[in-house]
Amino acid sequence: MMDNSVFIVTGGTSGIGLACVKTIIQRGGQVITCARKPFDFGDLFDINDLSRLHFQQMDISQKGIGQRLIDTAIDRFGQINVLINNAAQAPMKSLGELTDQDFSTTVNTNMRSIFELTRAVFPHFISNGDGVIVNLSSMAAVDPFAGFSLYGASKAWIETFTQATASEGRQYNIACYSIRAGTVETPLLRKVLPDYPRDQTLHPEDVAKLICQLAQSGDRSQSGTAIEIHSPSGNKSDPAFPSD
Question: What's the pTM value of the predicted model, to 2 decimals?
Fold first, then answer.
């Protein structure tokens, strides 16, 4: 059980993010989550569960949203214990097709949002003397393939930022992990690669369970590392696809 610990989950209305929200609520935690579009959690949870869940419609790529989300979480629940940076963009285009807007959207969603949220939550974690940050990376960070140059590069940045954050947070008992996942069965995967074999994908719930295990574990020895989780095929070249 999570004893009413408070989690922030970005991109919590589909894929890995939604799986995280479900897992946290089922285990007794509290969640504040966000996404660009409206979402009704009423069909997923009963009234008691919904009292432990707050949804904020916002575009996490916009400047200043990170601080706003942290402030909203503290106003709503009084504390924050875990930050899960999950929301991402993954334009699948060749280099010649990528636009300035593709670059800006990917950087702002996959990188700046994580920077802003981490910067905003850090003083709160320092004050608490404890905190966990989990950043969703991908096998594409180390083994990208044609068409995912921006996505893979942004995930490599996330892993470096995770290392630096873990190093800075260690003296305050703040842990930071990145999850380097293989191909995950998400709506975006089906949109981009509709024929990808389902028996070679990870279930979002498997990734969510790993994230929650890290959040609950008192063992911080893996803080700063990229923790790999692979599809049943074991193909490490399979990229992960974000949940948003």
Answer: 0.93
